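sorry for the late reply, my laptop died twice this morning and i had to redo everyting from scratch. anyway the thing you sent over, i finally got around to it. pasting the sequence first so we're on the same page, its 441 residues, then the predicted structure underneath. double check i copied it right bc i was rushing
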Amino acid sequence: MQSLVIFGAGAYNEGMRYLDRARWVTDKYILLMLGVFPLFVGIHGYDAVTASKFWFFTAATGAWLAAATVLLVWGLIKGERYRPAVRPAHLAVGLFLAVGALSSVTSEYGGTCLIGASRYTGYLTTVLYGAIFFGVSWLGRPRRRYAWALGLSAAVCCAIAFLQLLGYDPFWFYPEGTNYYDKYVAYNSAFLGTIGNTGVLASYLCLTGPFLTAYAALSRERWDRALFLPGAMSLALLGLCDVDAGIVALAGSALAAVPLLIRRDRAARLAGCVSGGVAALGLGTLYFWPGKSGTLYEMSQVLHGHLADEFGSRRGEIWKRCWALFRERPWLGGGPGTGARRFDIQWYSEARNAVGNVDNAHNVYLGYLVDMGALGLGCYLAAIVCTLVTWARRRKAGALYPALGAGFLCWLIQDFFGLGLSLTEPLLWLAWGLLETAEEE
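ok and here's the structure:
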């Protein structure tokens, strides 16, 4: 029966130290973000899902930070001492936030940097991401119930998406009288599940699919095998939601992560050799791909140094513009969240007979390069490398920790084509924070 006790542990009591109380609050915040945040759409459906999720995430994170800070300060007054471990990733993220502040105060767009010119991508959101990373890494612990919280939310999200793919709208998320198949005609996007935009949904699935399947395979608890179901649902939906970037990310992360998830060193080395061979074969096949259209053709052309404007659903045009904007302010960028004011690209939709403005780099890394310059992107990448190195070294630590690294890696690869919005991005920083603590319960 003990194996069935997943969410009941961690009861609050009056005799706890203030540090333990702060950890208790953090535990509940993590459960809220993994289990409820992905499912929260708001009362206006997809028409306002970005704002709804942003304010949910902001309110929840603000309340948690306030409560944890009060408890830690009160504990300090009472004589408790707590010295959090500062690792290389913490230093890199701290520098990333410092560069963002400097970029904001030197930007010609002034106060726009705080919230951002579009979709809440400003410095306030960046600070909250950093706070999640620091708070979770210092006060959180990888725990079994987190896998179940994320598994349950993923199962519900995927179940709703499958119904929508069948033409239903059980919770009235779409504009009145429409469904999934009215995408780009009745409304200017493609929406699925409880996340919204299918490109952003792919980021979520890139976390849940690899993480849940890896955790179910590695866990020694018999009941955890049930998490194969939401893991499989996530992978299936990733294949059905028509986001090629998600499939590329899944393939790339599988090649890199599988050798690290194998516990026996000799078998891991063999798997690494196989993965390296498959990767080399795949790149060679792409380079000599004979086709003249489609995703594989576009990837082949990129390997040949040719990036046409129409490649990647016209990401080629956006990425070229990103490079031009980077050269205008190479070190600090234009300011957090100001890319939408600088892109100056418009697309015409024949289906809707309307013109829309591009407000996102459609590549998280290029987005940071444009908004926070080479210094900001450099700090961000340095933090990622530090955490991936730590994950590789601790690959045998329990089940949740190595599995979480697999989902984190898949998400990072998908970010080469992703939007990086607060619809899902807080989950990346939460997983990142958990990866910077090695203790598992």
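The longest strand covers residues 346-349.
thats about all i looked at so far, will dig more tmrw
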